[in-house]
Amino acid sequence: MKMDFLPLNSMKRIPLIFLLIPFLAVSQQSETEILEHREEHKTELLDTSNHMLSIEEINEFQGLNYFNFDSTFQLKATFTKDKGKKFEMPTSTNRLPIYRRYGYVDFIIDSVPCRLTAYQNIDLLKRDRKGFKNYLFIPYKDKTTRNETYGGGRFLDFKIPESAIALIDFNLAYNPYCAYSYRYSCPIPPDENILKVEIKAGEKIPHGH
To answer: Got the DSSP string for 80-144?
Structure first.
């Protein structure tokens, strides 16, 4: 991805999921809205004109898989801006996109204090596209990883909040395209974003995988 994940034969596409999933920290989504986003994601994924999946992969597709909507995973969090140096983020291939730490998101799950680092993609920042200058990226793993959820981790999109209090909604957690196709290059969540709790919300391992 030159943003979050890219097909290996195309390094210019902005993944459509960026356009489907609302930036976090804007407003709390209802269950109906979450379900609508999931259906839109499935539709885009299977649209042959998007070339997200090959015809063979579409024919073998058995459906997306999600935890039930759970409002307890719509959490108020504290956002701390703390920009770090640029670094090369490892991916599932030899591609090394440039990111920098932009800040931290702190929240509590089951009485356990948790922290996730939010990253800024430098290539995306350079592109003059409306809205993306405020885009941050949160890749993470948790105790469901490799069991109920994709082994490569899951992603959250995050908008730079206007205050220290933000909303983080794990019902919007989604898989990288590597979960559906070998043709993609996807970031690997850094060790600092491995949570010691179960996040039973958002997307699970796709059906048939």
So the answer is: EE----EEEPPBSSS---EEEEEEEEEEEETTEEEEEEEEEEHHHHHS--TTGGGEEEEEEB-TT
